[in-house]
Amino acid sequence: MDRSAPRVWSPAELDAVLGGWTSGPGPLYRRLATALHRAVRTGELAPGDRLPAERTLAAALGLSRATVVSAYDALRGSGAVDSLRGSGTRIARLPGASLRPADGRVHGGTGTAVVQRLVDGPAEVISLSAAAQGAVPEVREALAALLADGLDPLLAETGYHPGGLPELRAAMADRYTADGLRTEPGQILVTTGATQALTLVAQLYVRRGSAVVVETPSWPGCLDALLAAGARPRRVPLDADGIELPGFRAALPGAVLAQVTPTFHNPTGALMSAARRERVAALAARARVPVVEDLAYDTRLWDTPEPGPVAAFAPPDAEVLSVGSLAKAVWGGLRIGWLRGPAPVVERLARLKALADLGSPLLDQALAVRLLPRVEAIRAARAVTLRAALTGLEGLLVRELPGWSWQRPAGGAALWIRLPAGTDAAVFAQVALRYGVELIPGSTTDPSGAHDDRVRLPFTLPPPRLAELVARLSRAWSAFPGAGGRIHSRTWPTY
């Protein structure tokens, strides 16, 4: 895309640029105008760019048209925009404003708002952009053990291991082998989180315009890694058993890669059956399409056994890359992910990683060596806490938001909520933000429109915070025009 050319901004794209503009003091129109003016000065909105029509933007953001009209009037008064009959509202050239920057947004992607909340940091808003918890106690214990007996040999290292610390690669290979999937250390690449693993895979396989088979809905951060490399997604729906086989089979010819999330799919929480995994592996091998399976969202809820990875069901000539991480099970601050695959492919990916960062931090990897043997016990203990949180959240929702519906997930840490028929979840998310909750609407995970009535609701918050979350959502729902009127009469405290 020519980034110097003026563009016509859609409401969704503009909202991603503005971020959490509803927070702060003052009337809504002033907050909106301030956020737009800031985007003009930083160059995110460039001279000549056209803003959405007032009525269109108001509908998308859940505002009255008068609010948007007042915001645009304030921008005209400051010289940030000008309006001509028949040509809409355009960004003017402000003295001292930056040129349009290369700011990390993925053209055509949907993960910008999720990433922006992480960049912005904590706020009074309850952000549901990440279904994450703090570190487990075992992290402190592993750190103490490392300081006591393992630090000196590590500090004697040069520090450069693009493929990963040899002890960690060996430990991960042993873990796969013990689970029935024979693996050598040379088949393991240690990465700085699962996202880097997916990004490296995209770099290796995808070129501009390459067809990639993906699930829909799909977590936007994973999809954006493919889009950033130039992928052209072929979207295949899910059923209760995983990615639908007829659609998967039809999408494979001519594709360079297929990406699936078989274990506790994000955002639905679905668990792909063993039979479905075997068929996915066989179909992809027959079409000679590599598969990358994202196993990073491995948050267990129940004691039901989980099938092995797709790679365990693959025929010998299949090319399956399995991505994992310690972020969900142990701690997101421990940036350790990995990829298991054929040794020649792993070697090529290691060269790409060396170009990116020369290797992941050795201290984190040394901690991971000590934590790996305890991961299953950690997952089991966390499942107890998550089940209690899930039960508590369901009780709150049944009482306060009886029109909302969901199915209990097979795993993961979030509910995939269906709002009442006809509700535009993206518009409701704008209203919820004004009541102190940042939601991930279904349109962020699926641009087809098939999940526009869905929101993702994590239950990783402590019980008092979950109660506050539902209180804010209830208050927002009462004020939401799409709810069919005010369904609650009680007044909730402001945040």
Name of the top-level CATH class of the largest domain: Alpha Beta
Radius of gyration: 24 Å
Q: What is the count of DSSP helices, taking H or I runs of 4+ residues?
A: 18
Provide the low-confidence segments as ranges: 485-495
Instruction: Give the CATH topology of the largest domain.
Output: Aspartate Aminotransferase, domain 2
Strand-pairing-aware structural class: alpha/beta
Residues in β-strands, percent: 5-15%
Residues in helix, %: 40-55%
Sheet with most strands: 8 strands, mixed
Walk me through the structure:
The chain is of the alpha/beta class. Helix content is 42%, strand content 13%. The protein has helices at residues 11-18, 28-42, 54-61, 65-78, 112-120, 137-149, 151-155, 166-178, 194-205, 220-228, 245-251, 274-287, 343-357, 362-371, 375-400, 425-434, 442-445, 463-479, and strands spanning 81-84, 88-91, 126-127, 188-191, 211-216, 232-239, 242-243, 257-260, 291-294, 320-325, 337-340, 414-418, 437-438, 440-441, 454-458. Strands 4-11-10-9-8-5-6-7 form an eight-stranded mixed sheet, sandwiched between helices. Strands 12-15-14 form a three-stranded antiparallel sheet. The chain has a two-stranded antiparallel ribbon with strand order 1-2. Helix 10 links the parallel strand 5 (211-216) and strand 6 (232-239).
Layout of strands and helices, then pairs:
Elements: H1 11-18, H2 28-42, H3 54-61, H4 65-78, E1 81-84, E2 88-91, H5 112-120, E3 126-127, H6 137-149, H7 151-155, H8 166-178, E4 188-191, H9 194-205, E5 211-216, H10 220-228, E6 232-239, E7 242-243, H11 245-251, E8 257-260, H12 274-287, E9 291-294, E10 320-325, E11 337-340, H13 343-357, H14 362-371, H15 375-400, E12 414-418, H16 425-434, E13 437-438, E14 440-441, H17 442-445, E15 454-458, H18 463-479
Parallel strand pairs: 3-13, 5-6, 5-8, 8-9, 9-10
Antiparallel strand pairs: 1-2, 4-11, 6-7, 10-11, 12-15, 14-15
